[in-house]
């Protein structure tokens, strides 16, 4: 009797082992996919929402916030192709579609505003709001604001390709820039005379004003050239005009729009950080900068070298 019971228990144990092994063979392990959001200095940006999207761009319903190191992670099935949608400072960006276990890094860009008042110099302690430009051309607040420092400077991190404006509030007056993109430096001079200060966006520069006197139209050679990681592009406007400055590759494909706004006459400077509209570093090679201002067009070659 005891021997029979031992045999039965042994058989039961073997059966359980076989069943467990069979169950284990059907298990599927997930893989981790991560997105890292960092600023232009390489520091992680925490507390920003990231959505997981399917390959077709539809939402999965999964969303997390970036951690202290700027990382957002999701567990997905092997072979699950997907993309990420980032929400940051009023803007949204959808990454390219990636494989299940790929790691993605997105670098934000810094827009800076320097507030001056003619010969009096820098204006400190002025509130500056970050505005989002809508499809209809109007702008609305993002809820993001900062105050100019002792040098009259304030900076905002934005997503690549995020079109925005900056609004400086000085007592009962306010000055609004034109449409800006990340990596742009803008100077606002409160002493400049405008018929309608509130609409000063039409004449406020999205680039640094180097000198006030009107000059002949022209696009200078970028400096440095070749360059890595960034280069400055100077150009001259004899009169106020709709200005568009775009970087193209040698195939004629648009890589990055640097300027698209009405600008005042004078000398202007804009910086390109060697990244495309999605924040990715461009490949080594030859690129073209194309400046269009009213009827005037100018093109320069430049070389990015890693």
Q: Can you put this structure into words, describing what you see?
A:
- By secondary structure, this protein is mostly beta strands.
- The protein folds into three domains: 32-107, Sandwich (Immunoglobulin-like); 109-206, Sandwich (Immunoglobulin-like); 218-304, Immunoglobulin-like, CATH 2.60.40.
- The chain has one helix and 22 strands.
- It has a four-stranded antiparallel sheet, with no helix packed on it.
- The longest helix has 24 residues, at 2-25.
- It starts with a helix and ends with a strand.
- Mean pLDDT is 82; it is low at 3-19 and 193-214.
Blueprint (SSEs and pairs):
Elements: H1 2-25, E1 31-38, E2 49-54, E3 59-65, E4 71-76, E5 82-88, E6 91-94, E7 103-107, E8 109-116, E9 127-133, E10 139-147, E11 153-158, E12 164-170, E13 173-176, E14 185-189, E15 208-211, E16 218-219, E17 231-237, E18 241-249, E19 254-263, E20 266-272, E21 285-293, E22 296-304
Parallel strand pairs: 1-7, 8-14
Antiparallel strand pairs: 1-4, 2-3, 2-5, 5-6, 8-11, 9-10, 9-12, 12-13, 15-20, 16-17, 17-20, 18-19, 18-21, 21-22
